Amino acid sequence: MHEGRSETARSGIGPLAAAAGLVRTARNIAVLTGAGVSAESGVPTFRGAGGLWRGRRAEDLATPLAFRRDPEQVWDFYRWRMERLDGVEPNAGHFALAALGRWAERFWLITQNVDGLHTAAGSREVIELHGSLRTARCRTCPYRCPMLEASTSPLPECPRCGDLLRPAVVWFGEALPEDALAAAGQAIAGCSLMLVVGTSGVVEPASSFAALARRRGARIVEINLEPTPISRAANVSIFGRSGEILPDLVGLVTRGS
Q: Is residue 130 flagged as an active site residue?
């Protein structure tokens, strides 16, 4: 674990202690997480395994056009993704964030992940920017159901309107859910500190959240394996495994309060 360039680094304060001080005095905390948080649980990245599935790029299957052309193949792809989540459990980083949420006066957890591990770890009211791999929805009406219920059929149909069900994730070329974006906006406006964990900082609009929060006066703490574009907005950057850093950070914060 080591620190990046930051205000606290220049003052000589250790990065973990500096981050704990910022978190402890904030109390109104927003967290943004990306794939790096779940990678330590063994969740494969979207473009992992060479980025191919049956000779096709994953990005070519996660689109509305692909679903219109061959919905059964898209469902096969998502069943395969669900199988790869079977037995995957939250790691220490997920549990540490759930504990931080119980400690904070106000807390928002925004995630780009679709694996549901934050909820499994005990975090409440998670803002899922990219939807959930554990839920299916009708492409026409508001009907939703657990993915495992839908995936028992090769091409599941909505029991309400008869149209096709699809995974309740955001595909390439689709807008993010309006309710998730609105909730993220409230988090950005209401937080006095944003903790950014395990995200590359290149996927919009989430990559802009830290800069927006900073302009509104929030402090920014980043935890990632390596520097990202978000590092420029961070007051403290700590580079290392979130599953190791988060428990130490949250322990310092909650024990010192």
A: yes
